[in-house]
Every structure is written in C-alpha cells, then in structure tokens.
From TrEMBL:
One of its GO terms (molecular function) is nucleotide binding. It holds the Pfam family GFO_IDH_MocA. Residues 162-240 form the GFO/IDH/MocA-like oxidoreductase domain. Coiled coil: none annotated. SUPFAM superfamilies: Glyceraldehyde-3-phosphate dehydrogenase-like, C-terminal domain, NAD(P)-binding Rossmann-fold domains. The keyword Phosphoprotein does not apply. It comes from the Bacteria. Keywords: Oxidoreductase. The lineage of its organism: Bacteria, Bacillati, Actinomycetota, Actinomycetes, Pseudonocardiales. This is Putative dehydrogenase. The keyword Oxidoreductase applies.
C-alpha cells in the first residue's frame, strides 16, 4: 500500500497487549492509531507502549481509522464489529465470531453487505509449518481420516484463567475453532458431527464427517495440568501418515503473516480468503452442532 492502513484496537487484555498492539505497531503496512477499552487506564497502558492515542469512546475510534482489530469477548465483538462494518471499516476478528450462531450470522451479513474485508485470526493457520503441512496434504490427496489433540491448562492458571467467557464456553469455544479449522483444511469441509461428548471438567471428544468421505476425531481440554500444552494434528490414508511437526511458530509470528494477507486484501479490494468471515461462520455452525450433540 502507498500509505499505512490506520487500525484501531478494541480491547486491552493479555492478547491485545502481547499480540495485537505490537504486531499492528510494527508491521510495515499498518499503523496502530487508536486504542479503546472498557477501562481507560488499560487502554492508556497499551497505547502508551506503541505511540497510539486513546479514543474517548467507540464512535471516536471509528472516526479515526480504516480498520478495527478486536481483542474482546465474542459477544462484544459480534455487536461492535457489525457496527464497524456498517461504517465501512475493515475487520480483524478473533475466534469465535460470536457466542451464538444468530449473532455470528448477523455479523457475517453486515460484512457481506458492506463489502469490507473481514478476516478471522486463526493463528495456527498462518504458521509456516502449518502452511507447508497443508500444501503437502493437498499435493498428495486421498486422505481417509485424521486426529487432533489440544490439551492445556490455560483455564487453571495464567493470563487467560480469569476470562469469564472462556470458563463459560470452555475448550470447545476457545480452542475448538483452531482445531476444527485445521482438520477441515486438511481433510475437506466438515459436514457433520456424528458424536460429541464432554465431561464435567470440560474434556471434549468429537467425531467429524468431512466432504469426500473422510472422518476425523479430536480431543480438547483447557483444564488439564499440562506444561507444555499438547498440540497434535495428523492425517492418514493412501500415502501413509502425516503429522504436523516442526517448531511451533509464536503467536506474534503468525499475526505478522496474517497482517501480510490482510493488508494485501485491503489494497487489492479482495474480500475472499481461506480465513475470511465466511470461514468464521462455517466454524460457528460446526461449534453449534457439536454443542447440541453433546447436550443431546
């Protein structure tokens, strides 16, 4: 782009401080201009470390930016992002899009009507090791199944252990979109959830059907005392067994790659991307199906 994209940041929690704010401030295609959060002191802390200003309120932030990045709970994101889209602002969104399917559908509709870029920060998808793994799977083809495990203790201790929406939604809502997205990208679109269960301490087991006939399974938890976390993804079929391996890229590295694509899309007027708003809506529908199946 000839000029940097002016981006406003909504939220001042751990993710905003460690990933969004430094990433937006350092990327050559973006300029973090404004921060707004429920607590002005928290917004000032984020803004002060990046040279951004603090918006007096939400409308003031919208007046000063070309795009908005969200690092807030899903229900807050769904409401504000729809307003930002209606104002013609491009969107950097977190997963899940919303806490329920109707809100996600309203947000997706607002983005489509406005014709703005709406991208979902599915961080693992932008990691170089993941890009290489998916490219090999597409090249070889004919995969019949897969398995994923994401087991962590992030709701027991750490930066996100005090997050009310994460405790309420559990592993399915927080890490579920990442796992579902990678299995979907590796094996084909998820078309059904034949089985889903969760234990009283939020250990999830899902079975997934994919277009083309593949079937996968995944296990999710954020309440296991594990350090480091267990992240495993693998597929199998005619060409054997292929696991996602290599040094996991940092969230900061993934966000930089995300911003590369986001800036290029805005500059070219393109709104379609593998991780665009439609992807977010598809994943929200799978989450809703899994939740209903478990509650069944």
């Amino acid at each position: 782009m000839d000029e940097q994209l002016r981006v406003g940041l909504v939220g001042a929690g751990p993710w905003a401080r460690s990933v969004h704010a430094p990433g937006l401030a350092d990327h050559p295609g973006t300029r973090l201009t404004t921060v707004w959060a429920r607590r002005a002191s928290a917004a000032q802390e984020v803004a002060g470390s990046t040279g951004a200003t603090v918006a007096a309120d939400w409308p003031a932030l919208l007046d000063e930016v070309d795009a908005v990045a969200f690092a807030v709970p899903p229900d807050v994101q769904a409401k504000l992002a729809a307003q930002a889209a209606a104002a013609g602002k491009h969107l950097i969104l977190e997963k899940p899009l919303a806490l329920d399917l109707p809100a996600a559908e309203r947000l997706a509709g607002a983005v489509a009507e406005a014709g703005v870029v709406g991208m979902l920060m599915l961080s693992r998808r932008f990691a170089p090791e993941t890009v290489a793994w998916l490219a090999e799977l597409r090249r070889l083809g004919e995969w019949s199944g897969g398995d994923a495990k994401w087991l962590a203790g992030s709701l027991l201790a750490g930066d996100y252990s005090g997050s009310p929406w994460r405790h309420e939604g559990g592993a399915l809502v927080d890490i579920g979109p990442h796992v579902l997205d990678l299995l979907d990208a590796a094996l084909g679109e998820i078309t059904g959830v034949p089985a889903a269960s969760r234990t009283a301490d939020d250990l999830w087991h899902l079975t997934l059907d994919h277009a083309g006939g593949a079937r996968s399974s995944c296990t999710l938890s954020m309440r296991l005392p594990l350090r480091p976390s267990v992240l495993e993804f693998a597929v199998y079929g005619r060409h054997g067994y292929r696991a996602l391996s290599g040094r996991p890229s940092s969230n900061q590295e993934c966000f930089t790659a995300f911003l590369d694509d986001f800036v290029a899309m805005v500059a070219s007027g393109t709104t379609a991307h593998p991780c665009d708003i439609r992807r977010g809506l598809h994943l929200q529908r799978v989450l809703e199906t899994a939740r209903q199946r478990a509650d069944g």
